[in-house]
Design brief:
The chain has no helices and 22 strands. It has 238 residues and is an all-beta fold. It has a domain of 91 residues. The protein has a four-stranded antiparallel sheet with strand order 19-20-21-22, with no helix packed on it.
Amino acid sequence: MNLKDIKTSQDSTYFLYKGKPLFKKKFVEVLKFHAPGLAPVKDETGAYHIDSNGNPLYPERYSRTFGFYCNRAAVIQENYWFHINEKGQRTYPQNYTWTGNYQENICIVRDFENHYFHIDIQGNRIYAENYLYAGDYKDGIACVKQQNELFKHIDTNGKPINSKEFLDLGVFHKNFATAKDKNGWFHIDKIGNENYQERYLAVEPFYNGFALVETFKNEKIIIDENGKTVLLCCTTTA
């Protein structure tokens, strides 16, 4: 059975396989199946995970459960967040006020002092710094907001990938990231150098060499990786 063929019902209370119920049981809420074939569900007993036959993975019940990523799932027990493995066992002793999902075997967490940082697959911090905010790793690079309220990119050891700081940042996509300075949004390379001098009200990541951006005159245009306008899409009104 291909997991991608298992769908959630329109009201998110049961699962469908090729248009028919996967099994008879209905739930208060269901989320999608993730590898290796497990899904978060909630019924009158609480939240937990099931296999593709609808069998509970473990006897514990939680306030809420989320999908498995890198063989780890985030769960909430009362007001405490942590991760469990496919056997339903906690993977580390710490509790958090929020956790993300593991990406590339690394996960964002927020502690009880509202510090953001990343932990490895065993639950260990991968660096000592605390941040105002942190994003998921993608291709070994993550965006973080420092105590000075400026953003930078860090590698999987927590080291900056360059010396540049910005008012806001996006993740790298096809070797370029979105960035914002006092004049507006633009694109940068991995050294932190700007692709072009223009600034925009909003920019999207490059998609196969081109990006949709919005000017300060509310014009939506398509630019190439050098910042050259190739197409005027439309003018928006406030």
